[in-house]
Write a structure and sequence with these properties.
alpha+beta, 3 helices, 10% strand, elongated
């Protein structure tokens, strides 16, 4: 794409709408409300391979990149005290 990925996605969005099927198992989504709904806690939607690309270390998941709901819940529990306003 040569650094023009964002421009290409904008063109796709303008031409086809906010949800575009890019392959058998891939969607481009630019609707913020839909993104919030699919990423919500206990959503029936699962995280795809894209999340592997946002690992800080290629072989280790973090709270954002982990795809397993069980592992994500465990990490969220460990991080909760650090972001809780009750501890401030």
């Amino acid at each position: 794409m040569g650094g023009k990925w964002g421009e290409m996605l904008r063109e796709v969005d303008n031409k086809y709408g906010h949800v575009v099927r890019a392959g058998p198992n891939y969607l481009f989504v630019s609707d913020l409300d839909l993104i919030k709904k699919t990423n919500a806690i206990r959503s029936s939607h699962t995280r795809g391979q894209f999340y592997d690309a946002i690992r800080l270390r290629p072989t280790e998941d973090n709270n954002i990149s982990v795809r397993s709901e069980t592992a994500h819940a465990r990490l969220r529990t460990q991080l909760a005290p650090g972001v809780s306003t009750a501890r401030m």
